[in-house]
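Thread title: Can someone regenerate the structure for this chain?

I was given the following input by a collaborator and told the matching C-alpha cells would be attached. They weren't. Posting the sequence so someone can regenerate them.
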Amino acid sequence: MTPDVISVKAKPGYIIEAEFSDGQIRRFDMGPYLHYPAFAGLKNDGLFMRVHVVNGVVVWDDEIDLSPDTLYLRGVHVKRDCY
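Best answer:
Regenerated them for you:
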C-alpha cells in the first residue's frame, strides 16, 4: 500500500515535491501531463502554485488531483537535506 502524502511544494517548471508518511520525498514533473484535459488547468501558474494535500492526496482544486500511487511510483527519490 502506498503511503499518504503529508506535504507538497510546487517548484518552477511544473515540478512538485511530495513528502510521504514513510519519510520518502519524491519529485514529480507535471509538465508531460499538462496536455491531458484533466490537468490542462494547471498551465495557469497561479493554480499550479496552490497545490496542497487533502486526506493524503495532492490536490489543486475540486476538480484536479493526483494519486499518491502515481507520485510514489513514478516520482524521483530526493535525498533529504542534511544540516
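Residues 5-78 form a domain with the NE0471 N-terminal domain-like fold (CATH 3.30.2020.10).
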